[in-house]
Amino acid sequence: MKLGIVGLGGIVPQCLESIKEIEYIECVAICVREPKVQLAKEVATKYQFNKVYTVYDEMLMDDEIDFVYIGIINSLHYQYAKKALEYGKHVITEKPFTSTVEEAEEIINLAIRNKLFLFEAITVLYSPNYIALKKYIPQIGDIKLIQGNFSQYSSRYGKYLNGEVLPAFDPKLSGGALYDINIYNIHFVVGLFGEAKDVLYNANLGYNGVDTSGIVTLKYDNFIVTLIGAKDSSSPCHIIIQGTKGYIRMNGSPNICESIDIVIEDKIETLKNNSHKNHMVNEFIAFEEMYRLNQLDQCYDYLAHSLKVMKTAVRARKDANIIFDADCI
């Protein structure tokens, strides 16, 4: 599995470090904007590949590349994924999958039509702890409440307060707390319980209409979920699933799922199944295995999940009257 990487955002070094640990994945190229060429060459030297592109189409014409990994600003995920699929490349795109439901449906249908792999890189779904907790849910009785909090003060928030709007705080570029950080909470819950009947979003909006923090409320038939995501303040992170016979607590942020406590009748069992320091390793192991074994059906099951999450995120965003430029296309 040979990767061409798009972008040099903060997630890209983590990606490159993760694939160093996986035998069957190799990065062979990177595509960046012209001002980033020198930095890209340094990255290429460090990770032992030599192809640096500044024209995306030229990288997509490189026959050595099987997969394109898209690690750029949120608003460009759809455009870059679509073009790669049209060139016959398989695609891994960072979260959020797209900006709108329509964009998600289009690239999913394009991948299925052309029998290509398309993955959303969302670490929580592939965490060994998250996978293991699923079998414990029936043991805690009827679910009544779920509460989650992923709050992390952004290093870019100070600049935002001083009037410098970087992509993470720009609704024109599909930024904001919901899509950047609370999306992990949504993936966690929707992955276990599917789509909610009702979706509400109470958000703290900044001077340009971006959500700097907020609370998503999901209403299911028999239980209620509240999910906090914040980039303007910090808090201990967790998700707790409360049932009539006990509860399950995920400790730490959902993108890592550091450990899981299962508490039933005052007896505590703790799951600590993560074996890699880099939390991206597990998802890339899964991507490579599905590709190597040609498990398209499993890939498309994950895409169906990504679509459910995107529908939930859009419903939340519209409830808070948050408008992206992608909504107007």
UniProtKB/TrEMBL annotation:
Any one GO MF annotation of this record: nucleotide binding
Pfam families referenced in this protein's UniProt entry, alphabetically: GFO_IDH_MocA, GFO_IDH_MocA_C3
Domain GFO/IDH/MocA-like oxidoreductase: from-to ranges: 139-249
Species name: Anaeromicropila herbilytica
Domain of life of the source: Bacteria
Sequence ranges assigned to domain Gfo/Idh/MocA-like oxidoreductase N-terminal in this UniProt record: 2-118
Protein name (Swiss-Prot/TrEMBL): NAD(P)-dependent oxidoreductase
